[in-house]
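Backbone shape codes
____________________
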Amino acid sequence: MDTTSDSSGVAYAVDTDLQELIDEEIDPTDLDAVKKKEKAITTLCEQHYKAGNVEGIRDLIHSIRPFLSVVSKAKGGKLFKQLIDRFVDMENATPEEKVEMCQNCIDWAKEKKRSFLRQALEVRLISLHLEAEEYQACLAAVEPLLKELKKLDDRQLLMEVHLMESNAYFSLANYPKSRASLVAARTTANSIYCPPRMQAALDLQSGVLHAEENDFKTAYSYFYEAFEGFDSVDIPKEAVRALKYMLLCKILLEEASDVPSIVTGKLALKYSGPDLEAMQAIAAAAMNRSLADFQQALDDFTESLQGDVIVKSHVDAVYESLLEQNLLKLVEPFSRVELDHVANLINLPEHQVERKLSHMILDRKLLGILDQGSNCLEIFSEEQQDSMYDQTLQMLTQTNVVVDALYKKAEKIM
């Protein structure tokens, strides 16, 4: 029995006798010996995983390949995928090592003509490309695999691949194709049993796409379903992500006052942490319409707010909305005001204020012009629209209808 420690310094025991048992040749007809060897493989894998021993699991994956010919393809494939999943889940293994291991195992599966195992490994490789943000490589691997899965009608894998394809297209800002892939994944999911984890992942992607289309009410519903799904299968990382998106939707719906009650709810309470604190800070800034509080939240929770691309894009939209509201409130008393005075009042650089005001004027959110010569903003009063013209036009239209009706009646009499 050897003792090793993981990256956090916690020591774990690794049984060297298990490796000897795994290396031993056994009689394929001896079912007890086969079961013992299977148990030894899974136990040693878990020990290496807890110890953070990347080399140990890599060597184990290579050493058990002869044993896979002894057991059935289904059982051997399941055992092999379990080891690969453990290797991929290791935090101290680099993305390059994970991709290399998956590719090596795919080549071995091709050589041994294990089609189903190869397809499962290719799906794992696509997910690794997606995590590493190698979207073009991900899509290149998806296309041939989809054709093969459609021929075999393997709907479970087909659903997973379509979902990953949707994620890749979304990351490349190709939203129509992302939606099409998601529809294909949902259609497949409706025809088979969909595990709770996969259903939650589908709901999460649906919510993300609806949020991108500014349909935050529908997006909130999907994120809530995804949160409950991930919570039920105990996947805290994804549950926190869905919860974070729920809170973001509430802020974007201008219902930031609901955020504290959601965070202190029964389900959400156990997921408290920096991600939820960041969303609470943004919600408080939105309620107070305070740019200073908003900027402070961005500084305090940079990783939580800027690390997630989806949160970052929508948080930027909230900031722009707050900036517009503050500028309109500040310039309301003036008919002509210097730009440096507005910049001092709002405590932002003058060039940023000038750029934002010009955008607001072009979008007709502010009636006025920027006088570059005197560096001033001239604000026009809103024109009072005279309703007489519209009323006269409406009266003439109705008169025309009456005259036409009278003419038709006169024709019948004659």
Q: What stands out?
A: The longest strand covers residues 2-5.
